[in-house]
UniProtKB/TrEMBL annotation:
One of its GO terms (molecular function) is protein kinase activity. Residues 54-258 form the Protein kinase domain. The lineage of its organism: Eukaryota, Fungi, Fungi incertae sedis, Zoopagomycota, Kickxellomycotina. This is Protein kinase domain-containing protein. InterPro entries: Kinase-like_dom_sf, Prot_kinase_dom, Seadorna_VP7. It comes from the Eukaryota. It comes from Mycoemilia scoparia.
Amino acid sequence: MERFSIYATMDLGNKIMFDAIDYLLRQKIMVACYKMDDYTKLLEWIRSNYGDNVDLSEETERGTWKVINRRNGKILLDLEDIGGYNGIPVVDLDRLKDIETLSYNTDRVTLDGKNLVWKRPILPHEPIHITNEISNLLRLQDVDGVVKIKYIVSSEGKEYGFLMEELQKITESPSHTEIIEMFKTVNRIHSLGTSHGDIKPENIMRNSEGQIIFIDLAFRDHTPEYMIPGTERLESEKYMMSDWYTLHITINKLNQLR
């Protein structure tokens, strides 16, 4: 398996903007500017430590270098190497039926007659918020009120995405008790050292039991209309404060439903 994805673009000064993602840890580990000599040394270090676990493509005409997964850019991890997934059952890709595309990396499928949402494998070129979402969901797997990963999808013994519970849009105002639970859920998220990052009505749904569930925990900049006035980008330590602000706005929006 390829543990690292590296994407680096040379500028006219023969330097590169370097972006490395460690897919085993599911996080971006470095964003920096290197001289070409430093970049070459770094690649040599990765090769010496991980051997064939990385694949360096040829330099393109635009001066771009990539270290990518050999399997068409898909992230396929050995399941036995993923300690953080313990306790989540594995299901073979061939068992998924009636696939309906919802977005560029999400499908609705059925497994043994039950509707689920399939998050397909992460690609090296995709935004970091996608890896952040999976990392957050794994960390918050036991937190009530947060969307749950139900299964790991397996293909030839490798990870091939996740199956999530299917949720429904909220069509009526939440009750007073539900609003209190929403605040408790956000507090539980914060207590584990993370934040939601994009609270808005579209990211709060209901499960089959009618419970309100938070989705899209991608830890990125909030949707502009829900950001604290006067801010364009948030520093990491301000995300939790922004969560509370956007939660109040979201509840006001949801209270307008009938």
